[in-house]
Give the backbone structure.
Amino acid sequence: MTRISLFFTFLLLMLASPGRAADTIEVSYTGTDSVGIQDDRNLYFIELLQQALARSGKPYKVTMKLRGATHARQMQMVVDGLTDVLWDAPGPEVDKRLMPIEIPIDKGLIGWRLFFINADDQALFSKITTEAELKKIPLGQVKYWHDTSILRANHFNIVETPSYSGTFKMLTSKRFNYFPRSIAEIWQEQKNQQSMLTNAVIEQHLVLQYPIAYFYHVNQNNKVLAQDIQQGLEKMLHDGSFDKLFQQYNGDFIAKANLKNRHVIHIKNPYMSDDTYRHFEHFWFNPETRNTGESSSPP
């Protein structure tokens, strides 16, 4: 056999190899906006994405590109094709620039908010029973977050902050009285931010709730990826693995929140229409019904 024949034989064997790296389809995302610490807030969304794409039968590999990017940069990276997937709540900017996969992947858990407060403020919050009373108390929110727009539209007393980590520092400096965080985030953050939460605790009496949820978003031209994620999530919903994974990652957080013994203050999200809310009604987390993350199939 000539050298040329040997070369082409080798080339054909490489092309036929099922495990060759060229077959891998990389799907990238940006990590959390914190750096230098162990931050597990995204583990559920990463695992859910991996399992959904695995059901496509294609050799997808989910990878992180970087951590510490602002929300605006994370979105721009998907627009520019530098990363592939962003999990985010709907809003005017993200709706205009990216394509959503229309399944609320966190069941709206992000809209159930407990508060970081300074320990000596618990008595203040224990007296609150109405939305009007809560609105009078200054809260801290990162300027560019969706939740900031929702709270501003509901006329809360907001002190805008420049960054995620800076908000913790401003809380303990008593620039405001509370920092609302979702049930799915606050317990991990309490552990992660110990060095900054010197006198801060999780408030014990209240929970603030508004309709909002995370969705996967992709570049508007990436229709194949959008379809594969959508179909994968639908398969997981029907075989029960979606709810099982939700419970695996969030069940302990929900139980720890002790919602049945908290006073709930509901507010509206002006950026979500009643029609949109009803469209996803069977997905929403609700501690007063059976829809609490336990395994179930969609109607």
Notes: The two ends are 64 Å apart (CA to CA). The chain has a mean pLDDT of 87.
